Amino acid sequence: MYLETVSGETSRILELPAPPSRAAVAATDLLDGVRKSWLWTTLAQQDVKLRYRGSILGPFWQTLTTAVMIGGMGLIYAELFHTELQNYLPMLTVGLIFWMFIAGMITEGCGTFIGVQGIIQQVRLPFSLHAYRLVYRNLLILAHNFVIVPVVLLIFPHPIQWIRLIELVPALILVTITGIWVSVLLGMISARFRDVPPIVASIVQVAFFMTPVMWPIQALGPNAWWAQLNPLFAAVDVLRGPLLGQPTARYSWTILATITVFGCAAAFAFFARFRSRIAFWV
Amino acid sequence: MKKALLATSTHGNLGRDALDRINIRALSDVSIDIVNGDRVGLVGLNGAGKTTLLKVLAGVFEPTEGRLVASGSVSSLLDTQVGLNADATGHENIILRGMYMGIHPREMRERAFEVAAFTELGHYLDMPVRTYSAGMMIRLAFAISTCIPPDILIMDEWLTAGDAQFLEKAQRRIEDFVRGSSILVLASHSTELVERWCNRGILLHHGRIMSVGPIKEVIAAYRRLIDPSAQDAAPQMAAVG
C-alpha cells in the first residue's frame, strides 16, 4: 500500500507492506517473549529474592512453611482417613507441592498484566514476557519446595520404578505450558474484568478440597472415576505418579493433553484479538 | 441530555456509548511524518493528548484507527520510575532499568561506569533510590536511557524538573544524537526549552493537531491559544495629560 505523507514543505510517498494479521502479531509477540528469556528469568529470580529480602532462610522460608504444613496435616489426616502415615505422608507431600505449583500459577495468573501495569504503560515489551516471568517464578518456587520430597521419601521409602521418573519431563512440560496459557488468558480477562481475580481465588480454594490431594482418591470408592475427570487432579496425578510408584490414573494424560491443546488455542485466539487492548485495560 | 452535555463540553472527545460506558477519544486525525534529524516539540494544554501521542509513538498504545510506522530503535523516557526498584541501589538500578530497555546485564555492566559518571551522583549511587530527590531520579533515568544512542528518543515533560546545569548537559547529549541522524520527540510546557531544543513543533488541542511546522510558528500559535488577547507588538503607554 502507498501512503503519501507531508512534512513541512516536502511530501513523500512511502510504500508500506500490508499490516500483519492479528494472529501474526500475536505469534511474533510470543516468539519475541521467548527471545528475551534473559530478561524474564532475571526478573523472576529477582521476584523470588525480593520476597524474602531481610529474612535469614531466604526462599527456603517457603520450603519450611510447606514442610510444617505437611507435617501438621499429615499427622491429623492420616488418622482421619485411617491410613498409615507411611502411605499417607508421601502422597500428601508430593501432591501438595505440585498442587501449590499449579494452583499458584492459576491464582497469580490473574495478575499477570495487572501486576505490571506500570511497565506495560511505559515501555513496549512483548506481552508474553510477563506470562513467562510468572511461570518461571513459580517453577523456581517449586524447585525450592521440592527439596522436601527426597527427605520424605527417604524417611518413608516406597518402591519406585526409576525408569518412570522420565515421565516427569513431559508432565512438567505440559503443566508449564498450561501455566502459560492460563496466565495469558486469565491475565487478560482479569485486566478487563477486575472481579475475576477474587472469583478465581475462591474457586481454586474450593477446588483444593474437591481434588484428591489431601485425601486419597480411593476414599471415593466406586465413584472415584468422577474425581479422575477433574483436570486439576489430572495435572497433579501425572506429576505425582512416578514419584510415588503409583500408576497414573487412566484418563490423566489424555485430559491434561486435551486441556493443554484447547487451552492454548483458546488463549491464542483471545490474545490475538485483544492483545492491543491490554495497555488500555490495565 | 446528559450525553449531549457531556459530548459538547468536551469537544466530542468524551461520550457515553449505548451500554452507558464512558469512552474517551484522546486523539483524532493525527497524521504526521517525522524524519531523520527532526527534533519535534509537542506542545498543548493539559489534557490535549501529548502524553497519549507519545505513548502511541513509543509503541505502548496501539492506534485504534490508522497505523504507526516506525523504523529504528525507540527509547522512551516517559516516566522516571519505570523499572526502578526503590529498595535497590543506584548501581543496581542502572542494570535493572537497562534490562527494561533491552540491554543485557553483561552489556550494561560495561557501560555502568560512564552512566554513573554522567549522573554526577557520586556516592549516592550506593544508596537505595527511594532516598533520591526528584531531580536525582531524573539524572539517573536520563543517563541510563541515553547511554546507548537510540534512533528515536521520546521524552515527556518531567525533564524540565532538572536543574539548569543538568539541562545543559542533557541538551548537549541530545544534540549529539540528533546530529547522528536520530529523531527526538519531546513534550513540554516549557516553551523556552522546546524552542531551544527543537526545530519542528506540533500543537495539540483537544486531541487534534492545531498547528504543525517550524517551532517558532507553533510556539506562537500556542501562545495565541493560551492568551488570545496578547499582542506581539511592544507594550505602549498612553500619557494622560
In short:
The complex is a heterodimer of chains A (282) and B (241). Chain A is mainly alpha-helical.
Question: What layout of secondary structure does this protein have?
Answer:
The complex is a heterodimer of chains A (282) and B (241).
Chain A: E1 2-7, E2 10-15, H1 22-35, H2 37-51, H3 60-80, H4 85-109, H5 117-120, H6 128-146, H7 148-155, H8 168-192, H9 196-210, H10 224-228, H11 231-244, H12 252-274, H13 278-281
Antiparallel strand pairs in A: 1-2
Helix pairs in contact in A: 1-6, 1-12, 2-6, 3-4, 3-6, 4-6, 4-7, 4-8, 4-9, 4-11, 6-8, 8-11, 8-12, 11-12
Chain B: H1 2-9, E1 14-16, E2 22-24, E3 39-44, H2 50-58, E4 74-77, H3 90-100, H4 105-119, H5 134-145, E5 152-155, H6 164-179, E6 183-187, H7 191-197, E7 200-205, E8 208-214, H8 215-226
Parallel strand pairs in B: 3-6, 3-7, 4-5, 5-6
Antiparallel strand pairs in B: 1-2, 7-8
Helix pairs in contact in B: 3-4, 3-5, 4-5
